[in-house]
Specification:
Blueprint lengths: L3 E9 L2 H17 L3 E5 L13 E7 L2 H9 L1 H10 L3 E9 L4
Antiparallel strand pairs: 1-3, 1-4, 2-3
């Protein structure tokens, strides 16, 4: 079964409130077995455009990645994030070669 990934690109307007989102998303991410592969950090945009913050999470399956996003717990955390940030999020199935 292929792993699932969230790839997010985010511009944060209010980091203090965004920290509340980070705290609120911890429980649903743990519940669905999310593992952070990238969480902010230094980046260089070599082609195209990017937002200031990049986050990549790995899940045991594509289905788990979708279930986590659609969960009541994550949606409650997202409600905290939405007013203080602008972003793009892709849920993608991993390559199994």
């Amino acid at each position: 079964m292929a792993k699932g990934y969230w790839i997010g690109h985010v511009d944060v307007d209010d980091m203090e409130t965004y920290k509340n989102y980070i705290a609120a998303n911890a429980a649903p991410l743990a519940e669905y077995g999310a593992k952070f592969l990238v969480r902010g950090g230094e980046q260089q945009v070599r082609e195209g455009h990017a937002r200031a913050r990049t986050v990549v999470l790995e899940f045991e399956s594509y289905e788990k990645a979708i279930e986590c996003y659609e969960s009541i717990g994550y949606q409650a955390a997202k409600d905290i994030r939405d007013p203080v940030s602008t972003g793009d999020l892709v849920i993608i199935e991993g390559y199994t070669g």
